Write a sequence for this structure.
């Protein structure tokens, strides 16, 4: 692969575009519609057309796709149809192999919020995590329905839904356990408990940690 391609960072949306073009040349609207029709918008962010066009431009500049033709129709605006290049075909395989092989820290929101959950009072944390558990139950039920609807298709078609269902079910079990521990008092925290940690952890200076129900804590000199 060329040096320009090596500088292009793989992304779920870029991989989706390349994968779609393996089947046939497509214009951006058709790409977005197919990803939504196939339910792939649950794992690939295609909600914003601008992001799709930006990704297509990056792939075009990298030589992974090329303009096949421009369609003109009185009913629709002018549409550019893209096709996969030989380099794009190879990049698809390389990116798929890398993404399937190497676990990566993708910095999702939930673990980041958990790392600072002690800034909420335990009772409030219990309430919001209980709400999350309810939402997860709904999402698991929706995925169960999706998997049931594609039960007659080859299993490979729904691997993303199967994975999401497994991850959500595991998260639900964990969140339910945390909620139970919060309700029983097995997990709790307080300003008094966290104050020594804040004092020892913060560097000398003007940094402060706002703990639940109290004034900012500053390190003692």
């Amino acid at each position: 692969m060329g040096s320009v391609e090596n500088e292009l960072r793989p992304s779920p949306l870029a991989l989706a575009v390349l994968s779609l073009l393996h089947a046939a040349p497509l214009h951006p609207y058709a790409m977005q519609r197919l990803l939504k029709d196939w339910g792939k918008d649950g794992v690939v962010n295609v909600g914003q057309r601008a992001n799709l066009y930006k990704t297509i431009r990056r792939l075009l500049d990298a030589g992974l796709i090329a303009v096949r033709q421009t369609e003109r129709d009185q009913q629709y605006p002018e549409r550019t149809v893209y096709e996969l290049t030989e380099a794009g075909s190879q990049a698809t395989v390389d990116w798929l192999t890398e993404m399937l092989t190497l676990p990566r820290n993708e910095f999702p929101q939930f673990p980041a919020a958990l790392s600072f959950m002690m800034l909420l009072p335990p009772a409030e944390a219990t309430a919001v995590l209980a709400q999350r558990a309810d939402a997860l139950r709904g999402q698991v039920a929706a995925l169960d329905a999706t998997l049931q609807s594609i039960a007659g298709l080859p299993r490979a078609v729904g691997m993303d839904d199967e994975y999401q269902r497994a991850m959500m079910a595991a998260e639900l079990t964990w969140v339910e356990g945390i909620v139970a521990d919060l309700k029983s008092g097995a997990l709790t925290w307080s300003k008094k408990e966290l104050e020594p940690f804040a004092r020892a952890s913060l560097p000398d200076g003007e940094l402060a940690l706002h703990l639940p129900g109290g004034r900012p804590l500053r390190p003692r000199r």
